[in-house]
Amino acid sequence: MPAIRKVVLRNFKRFERLDLPLNPGLNVLLGDNEAGKSSVLLAIDLALSASRSKIEALGVESLLNLDSVNRFLASRRLVVDLPRVLVEIFLTDCDEPLLCGRNNVDGQMCDGIKLECAVPREIEAEVTEHLRDPDAPFPFEYYAPRFATFAEDSQIAFRKHVRHLLLDSSRIDSEQATRAYTQQLFSVSADVKARNKLESSYRKAKDDFRNEHLKAINETLTEYQFAVRTSTKANLETDLVILEDKLPLDVRGKGRQCFVKTSFALRRGGEGTFPLHLLLLEEPENHLSHAHMRKLVERLAKAEDRQLVVATHSSLICSRLDLRKAMLLGASPEKRAALSNLSEATARFFMKAPDNHVLEFALSKRVILVEGDAEFILIQALYEKHSKGSTLAEDGVHVISVGGTSFKRYLELARLLGIRVAVVRDNDGHWQKNCVDNYADFEMENARVFADADDKRNTFEVCVYQDNQALCERLFGAARKSLSVQDYMIANKADAAFELLEQGAPELTAPKYIRDAIAWIRQ
Predict the structure, then answer these.
(1) Pairing state between β 110-118 and 100-101
(2) d(CA 211, CA 205)
(3) Residues paired with 422 in a beta bridge
(4) Which long-range CB contacts under 8 A does 5-9 form with residues at least 24 apart?
(5) Using CA atoms, how far apart are residues 418 and 217, in angstroms rounded to an integer?
(6) Residue-wise over 478-498: b if at least 16 C-beta within 10 A, else e?
(7) DSSP-assigned beta bridge partners for residue 328
(8) Which one of 251, 376, 415, 519 is CB 3.0 to 4.6 Å from 401, fit for a cystine?
(9) What are phi and psi of 6, to 5 degrees?
């Protein structure tokens, strides 16, 4: 089965340069909004589709990297310097001579397909004349797409070396998107010969309906008669629908449409005349309930007979599908990272953890990790007080409550991704053992563990009480019957923290180790 082993982009949308290796099976693309996940899927789809009409519908101006355009306009403005859009799809060995050649950026003898958008040589003189005017706009209208294999075969639109499908759940509920999806799936489920035969049979069935069932009505008419529409807008592919329990899919809710369409595309390899080689999924979690999300994850995990490239914002999807298959796309090349070097133990931990914030963590630049609800409730107020009024959002700091046993798992991620992390935890009665020796393997510039060094101040609540004794006595002392105020705060951590936030935030002073964590994370 052919599979993509690398995608190369040059001047494509937000990427001036991207070399993205892919696994033959599952690949998960992570990234914040505008990180380029959708652009990668679009580039693959355009190159493999080899469709000029798709390029023309989008417009070269929407594909060409804006920075490269502006740089050209500020330069000497010569045709030879015009940037070009380049998408190269490096494939595993397909035993197909028409794919194999050196027509690629690496100059390697290998299989692959490429898309290039540039000014054709035949009209370079015309473009030169256009650019002589210093006020002339960028010559987008002169660009033309060209599709070829690495062997310089230009007939790839008719050969479909890699049968693929792009499924965008954000547009899944529109009639046009549903029709396009059905047509695409039909085209990869049956070869050209089978589709032509079915189309011919469908036209004949329409003729038979006119001749048999409309005959009686038409015999009563003279100048005008009834017939069934036959055109490119009313043929077999436009009239096909997908049924579930005998109901058309487009009458279902958005969530069900997303689930069924994805499941249908993931159907077993033996179903259909020619099953898919590659499935591109854009945010498959859209519109799905938690239960359907889990079912979808199970199906994605079992899709071993084809290559998958999934772009997602879901922690559930990216962690349950094995973080080692994930690639983080950042705002700059140095922020791009593969998680393939994550340890198996940590990858399996996130796959099995009942709840995690792994994607939120991965997309952050600075993170404070806390181990309990009480710290999470109060940390924002404490941060604002000890950062001279600055907020977590203004400083780009995320606070994540992960539980004490998970700290090392997140620190391993921090090491791979270069995220600045402050771990805020209790010393649990033994600062040296629990907070120093325990993290000896995680000493790094971008991460530090903060805890109270006094073993007697063993929990956050003890530290807060001792540093804010008058405030805590005033808030909790009157109602106490058997427990001391400190013991009450330990026994009711979240409730006590919420009361402190609501009634005493302006007076509250953070323990020193938390003040140190705030100062360090802001550096």
Answers:
(1) antiparallel
(2) 10
(3) 368, 448
(4) 5/90, 5/91, 5/92, 6/90, 7/40, 7/43, 7/44, 7/87, 7/88, 7/89, 7/90, 8/86, 8/87, 8/88, 8/90, 8/104, 8/105, 9/39, 9/40, 9/43, 9/86, 9/87
(5) 76
(6) eeeeeeebbebbbebbeebbe
(7) 30, 337
(8) 376
(9) -160, 140
What span, in angstroms and rounded, lies between the C-alpha atoms of 23 and 297?
A: 18
**What is the DSSP secondary structure assignment for residue 25, as one 8-state letter?**
S
CA distances from 310 to 256, 307, 314, 461 (A): 19, 10, 11, 43
How far apart are alpha carbons 80 and 60 in whole angstroms? 18
CA 510, 514, 517, 518: dihedral to nearest 10 degrees?
-20
Secondary structure element (H or E) that encloses residue 27, with its range: strand 26-30
Beta bridge partners of 281: 167, 310
Question: Which class for 113: exposed (0-12), middle (13-18), buried (19 or more C-beta within 10 A)?
Answer: buried
Residue by residue, pLDDT tens for the chain (523 residues) are: 789 999 999 999 999 999 999 999 889 898 877 788 999 999 999 999 998 999 999 999 999 999 999 999 999 999 999 999 999 999 998 778 889 999 999 999 999 999 999 999 999 999 999 999 988 999 999 999 999 999 988 877 667 788 888 877 665 555 555 666 676 667 666 666 777 788 888 888 888 888 888 888 888 887 888 888 877 677 777 777 777 666 676 666 666 666 666 666 666 544 454 667 888 888 877 766 777 777 777 777 777 678 989 888 877 777 777 888 888 887 566 567 788 888 999 888 888 776 668 888 888 889 999 998 999 999 999 999 999 889 999 999 999 998 777 899 999 999 988 899 999 999 999 999 999 999 999 999 999 999 999 999 999 999 999 999 999 999 998 766 788 999 999 999 999 999 999 999 999 999 999 999 999 999 9
Separate counts of helices (H) and strands (E) for the chain: 24, 18
Write out 384-444 in H/E/C secondary structure: HHHCCCCCHHHHCEEEEECCHHHHHHHHHHHHHHCCEEEEECCCCCCHHHHHHHHHHHHCE
Backbone angles phi, psi at 92, to 5 degrees: -65, 165
Q: Are residues 421 and 449 in contact, defined by beta-carbon separation less than 8 angstroms? A: no
- Nearest by Cα to 309 from 22, 43, 61, 98: 22
How many angstroms separate the CA atoms of 308 and 348, rounded?
Answer: 20
How far is 437 from 440, CA to CA, in rounded Å? 5
Is the pTM of the predicted complex or chain greater than 0.85? no
Structure tokens at 492: 């009711």
Beta strands in 208-355 (DSSP E): 243-244, 247-248, 278-282, 307-311, 326-328, 337-338
Contact 165, 216 (CB under 8 A): no
